[in-house]
Design brief:
This protein has a two-stranded parallel sheet with strand order 1-2. The chain starts with a helix and ends with a helix. Helix content is 70%, strand content 1%. Helix 5 packs antiparallel against helix 7 and helix 8 packs antiparallel against helix 9. The chain has 19 helices and 2 strands. The chain is mostly helical and 394 residues long. The longest helix is centred in the first third of the chain and has 27 residues.
């Protein structure tokens, strides 16, 4: 926040009305979104919920009726005990909304860690709750990407606080919830090689994964099927870009089936080479890395991998959207990057969400294409802000 901005926030007549507007807006928008049912809600989430209720709740965990890892199903099972008291759709969305609040608290804590300005931290958290992609992904769509993103935020927070074991614990939980947490693997390698995280901490991820799978295993599901959850998810991904707002979205429609197959291998090679280049550049950053570098570095990796890897889905930029906003709270001149991330992901969501509304009046066919342009510009901005850290060699 600039000095002028800090002075404005210091005025009670500005701070309290602005905070009230943001909090009321966050609650009202979620309340209005609760009745909406996307195709995912109708075809998957509600069916999973009904299966849990009709098959004995805990006993249902023995069956392979879902394609997520079990921790989310545990949450759905716990929520199902309020079945009949609260509407099913509302119960499912309340799981996500709960983590919206937890993530907002982490945003508050992370901003306060870098900038000792409590009012800035509070308003950052309140504004976070109004982010378009946060609302679209959770309260409207009913998806749960905020859950693993919350643990990624906690991972970054503990890194900023120089608490390596807590950091790896949070990352292990995130990885156990969603495989997309693997986008941070190169950054994790950097932390290991620089001993920011001790090598002995590597034992935690498999232990945490096993512990989180244990209730399902005790209910009767085989360990083999629990280990193979992520392999099964890969079978759902076929396109060069599954409406992910990346460069492949712009030209995949002009490719033949054979050309797409070759392009997939080319994309994997490109992603691998780019990851090596970025990883190598980390070692030119002044040591120890600043909390601001941690936030920017995480943003870079969470945006880079879905930008270059093939078969990415429309929601895979979601954690990058959240971290780009956090970075903009701390570096206000980067506001346009946060906006572009929001625009890119929101447009990528548009076609799918519009298909859930009968007779939607706007043609959203090219929305993801426009979103791809916005996301490419956003990533260029992230690289622009990253480069000065690399130049400041020790």
């Amino acid at each position: 926040m600039t000095e002028t901005g800090s002075a404005v926030l210091a005025r009670d007549g500005v701070f309290y009305p602005l905070l009230a507007v943001l909090l009321v807006s966050a609650m009202l928008l979620r309340w209005l979104a609760l009745p909406f049912q996307s195709h995912d809600m109708q075809d998957f989430l509600l069916q999973w919920y009904d299966y849990i209720v009709t098959h004995g709740r805990f006993a249902a965990l023995s069956d392979n009726f879902y394609n997520y890892t079990p921790p989310y199903i545990y949450m759905m099972t716990a929520a199902s005990y309020l079945d009949g008291v609260i509407d099913r759709v509302t119960l499912i969305k309340l799981i996500t909304i709960l983590f919206d609040g937890i993530a907002a608290f982490l945003v508050y804590a992370m901003v306060l860690t870098v900038r000792p300005d409590r009012r800035l931290a509070i308003l950052s958290a309140a504004l976070f709750l109004n982010l378009p992609t946060l609302l679209l992904n959770g309260a409207i769509w009913g998806q749960c990407d905020i859950i693993y993103t919350t643990f990624l935020l906690a991972f970054a927070y503990y890194l900023m606080r120089n608490c390596p074991f807590q950091a790896i614990l949070m990352y292990a939980v995130a990885l156990s919830l969603k495989v997309q947490a693997i986008f941070l693997a190169p950054f994790f390698v950097y932390l290991l090689l620089t001993r920011a995280i001790p090598w002995r901490a590597l034992i935690l991820p498999p232990i945490i994964y096993g512990l989180l799978m244990l209730p399902a295993a005790l209910a009767g599901r085989s360990w083999i099927s629990l280990i193979q959850v992520y392999a099964g998810q890969a079978g759902f991904m076929h396109s060069l870009s599954a409406h992910a707002p990346n460069v492949y979205m712009l030209f995949q429609g002009a490719l033949s089936e054979q050309a797409r197959s070759f392009a997939t291998y080319g994309a994997l090679l490109l992603a691998g080479l780019a990851s090596l280049v970025v990883l190598a550049s980390h070692f030119r950053v002044r040591w120890p890395p600043s909390p601001l570098f941690v936030i920017l570095g995480v943003t870079l990796w969470l945006g880079l991998e879905p930008s270059l890897l093939p078969r990415m889905h429309d929601r895979y930029f979601f954690p990058a959207d959240m971290f780009a906003f956090l970075f903009a709270c701390l570096v206000p001149r980067a506001w346009w990057i946060a906006v572009l991330f929001q625009v890119g992901s929101a447009l990528a969501y548009a076609q799918y969400l519009a298909s859930s509304i009968a007779d939607f009046p706007i043609d959203t066919y090219y929305a993801a294409h426009v979103g791809a342009v916005a996301m490419i510009a956003a990533m260029a901005g992230v690289v622009w802000f990253y480069c000065p850290f690399v130049r400041k060699t020790a």
